[in-house]
Amino acid sequence: MITILICPGLSNSGPAHWQTLWEQSMTQAVRVQQADWDNPTRTAWMAGLTSAVSAVSDEIILVAHSLGCALVAHWMAAGMPGLSGAQKIRGALLVAPPDVGHTGFPAPCFSPMPTVPFSFPVKVIASDDDPWCDIAVSRAWAEAWQAEFHNIGAKGHINGESGLGDWKQGKDWLSELLSQAR
């Protein structure tokens, strides 16, 4: 079995966010919990991800949004602490990675964004008009991470305010990762 670990960004994902809707509709989905969703520190959030990974005995696919993408990149660059020999990260869907180095970004402790290639399949999904990251920056990170890149057009920060609902296109990309993992 494969567990889908949902890694929200700042303020957690609200009720209209596609991550929340996926968690509610997918029995194998588990949300990574953080002690402070509004005042993140990289150390504390990495510990939260490590704790979530340690609690899973199955193979894992990470589904991250916004600051959750930066969290996954830092966790991977740190050698994926907490990963046991019985577990394996089989892929990651990184949606709307933010420009953590941008002036005024609310979580500067996540800067700079790691650019270490991932050791598992990754899909990066970005938007033309994301207020938190220029599409060229997202594309450059995808290249550095050796990830598949998808530009979904003008969908803002690809969150609850983007009007995506259950976001079928995103689920299709997740299904591709799940198929590759089998």
Note down, in words, how this protein is organized.
This protein is of the alpha/beta class and 182 residues long. The protein has a single domain, classed as Rossmann fold (3-Layer(aba) Sandwich). 31% of the residues lie in helices and 18% in strands. A 6-stranded parallel beta sheet has the order 2-1-3-4-5-6, sandwiched between helices.
- Global Rg: 15 Å
The best one-word shape is globular
- Mean pLDDT, nearest integer? 95
Low-confidence region ranges: none
Count of DSSP E strands?
6
Helix count, per DSSP? 5
The tally of structural domains comes to 1
Keywords:
182 residues; 18% strand; Serine hydrolase family protein; alpha/beta
Describe the structure concisely.
The chain has 5 helices and 6 strands. The termini are close together. One of its GO terms (molecular function) is hydrolase activity.
Please render the helix and strand layout as text.
Elements: E1 2-7, H1 18-25, E2 29-31, H2 42-54, E3 59-65, H3 67-77, E4 89-95, E5 122-126, H4 135-144, E6 148-151, H5 168-181
Parallel strand pairs: 1-2, 1-3, 3-4, 4-5, 5-6
Helix pairs in contact: 2-3
